[in-house]
Amino acid sequence: MAILFLGAGFPNTFGIPTMEGMTQDLPRLELDVRERQLLESIRERLSNYSHYDIEAVLTVLDYLSDPERVGKEVVNAAPTQFFIEPKESWANVSLEALNRCYGIGDPDKVKKAVIKHIKSVCQMKAEKEELFPLIDQLLILLDLHLGGPDLRSTLGKELVGNSLNHRIFTTNYDNVLCAYANRRGARLMNGEISQNQVGIHRRTNSTLFYEAEQAFKIFRLHGYITWFIDKHRGDIRHSDKVLPQGERSLLGDEPEREAMIFPIGGKYIYREPYCDMFFYFKEILQKEKLVTVVGYSFRDTDVVGLFVDASFLNPQLAMVLLDPRAEQIKKERLGDFRGRILTAIGKFDSEGLHSLEREIARWVILKNHQMPGESIEVQDVVNGDTDFEKAFSESCVRAGDRGDDLRTRRRNGTLELFKVISGSKFKVDGYDWNDRMRVDVGGSVWVTEHKKQAKGY
Fold first, then answer.
1. Is 251 contained in some domain?
2. I need a surface site. Which of 20, 107, 229, 260 has the fewest CB within 10 A?
3. C-alpha span between 113 and 122 (Å, rounded)
4. Do 378 and 417 belong together in one domain?
5. Within this chain, do residues 190 and 298 fall inside the same structural domain, yes or no?
């Protein structure tokens, strides 16, 4: 079963803004004068730090609202620069110090306005469903390469039920995945159970964590836009829509606050209510060989630490990362990751999926050192990677040992694999390199087949 980790770059394809995009919308929020002054003073102070986003703004507002909780929960010094003067220690921070930095205004009112904005923009518009075939392509690609059912003839054409069997971990709040699963008729499991309850702990919803239970499973590590903390029961509930402030659900549940977390300040992964899912994700990483990451910036140090820790405990763990800045992210934020990182440069679109496909093919060859015994060429997969070229060559030798009579050569900087047909007396240059057909060979590596046009082939 393929393991997917999705960041904000994934729903951005479907019109959901990234955190940076949401941050740019903040000046347009409807606020009273005092609250607008507070928001502007926070944004002005945060602007001194590179790549701040709306989660940093919410972190400041959260802590301004409840400074006593800040002292208990923040266990590192990372966010202190957002709140107080550098000369003031976090242990001695007081409400007066915070007010000195940010002036006047009610942080609760500002926070509610920001969260309302997040919930509104995280709801995908119906017309974006026309892009769902991109998700089809992603899941088909992963199943074919990594061992899963062949859904090419059914996905997007008929309801799939529990044939769509994937585990998806995400830090996103949006509804894209749920809308996709519902449209495809998949058996969806994302923690929502009967009577509006949300079960994201093993003791309350063990089937979500049971690997043999086939379903389209979504693990929302930061929560979801329709989840909330019930005012009377204190547990997480869900509704069939985003509830406006003060509105009850159809079953009478009354939201006290949102059930979304904003991870800038402190070791949040060890706190309820989401710690079970984080620990489960770490368990998965410790035993899997590959995790596919789409559109995640790895700015969250706790999530980076989770990946790094897993790579120390599981040195065979590899990562394929699809992002326009994948190389930069690998260099700047994943230096401690011990496993192999294959970077696919691009957005989540057709071109990006092609790049992702190429890198997964590279990993399959590196892992297995074997190729199907067919007449094939693997393009654009070497890129100066000596480890890969060695593995590719060894796969050709092994194929030759099986009697497949495969050969390799360099052509215009591309390492090629081809098959010598007994009695044909043709040379490689006898191939018509312009006539190419995309085929799937053995369900393990996407390849390009070259047909000879000469008489007698």
1. no
2. 20
3. 14
4. yes
5. yes
**Three-state DSSP state, 441:** strand
CA distance 198 to 178: 15
C-alpha dist (Å) from residue 342 to 75, 317, 417: 33, 12, 22
CB atoms within 10 A of CB 51: 10
Taken as a whole, the chain contains a residue count of 457
CA distance 134 to 146: 18
Residue 217 CA to residue 234 CA, distance in Å, equals: 25
Note whether residue 214 is domain-resident. Answer: yes
Cβ count within 10 A of residue 214: 17
Q: Do both 93 and 204 map to the same domain?
A: no
Residue pair 318/27 in contact by the 8 Å Cβ criterion: no
The answer on 107 and 130 residing in a single domain is: no
Find tokens 């202190």 and name the residue: 80
Phi first, then psi, for residue 354 (nearest 5°) are: -65, -40
> Tokens 């071109």 belong to which residue?
351
Residues 58 and 87 both lie in one domain: yes
Asked, for residue 61, whether it belongs to a domain, the answer is yes
pLDDT tens-place values along the chain, 457 residues long? 679 999 999 999 999 998 888 988 999 999 999 899 888 888 887 777 666 778 778 877 877 777 665 555 554 444 444 544 443 443 444 445 555 556 678 888 898 899 889 989 999 999 999 999 999 999 988 887 777 788 888 888 888 888 888 999 999 999 999 999 999 999 999 988 887 888 888 888 899 999 888 999 999 998 898 888 888 777 888 887 777 666 777 667 777 777 777 655 554 555 667 888 999 999 999 999 999 999 999 988 888 999 999 999 998 899 999 999 999 999 999 999 999 899 999 999 999 998 898 788 778 766 655 443 333 344 444 445 556 556 656 655 554 444 444 445 444 444 455 444 343 333 333 333 333 333 333 333 333 333 333 333 2
3-state DSSP call for residue 410?
A: strand
DSSP state of 381: -
Please check whether residue 5 is in contact with residue 293, taking contact to mean a CB–CB distance below 8 angstroms. Answer: yes
207 is a domain residue: yes
- Asked if residue 49 and residue 139 are part of one domain, the reply reads no
Same domain membership, residue 154 and residue 280: yes
Tokens of 351: 């071109």
In the chain, the number of structural domains is 3
348: nearest Cα among 138, 183, 139: 138
Residues 6+ apart with CB under 8 A from 247: 255
Domain containing 80: what range? 20-120
The last residue of one of the domains, among 95, 120, 145, is: 120
Residues 318 and 387 in one domain: no
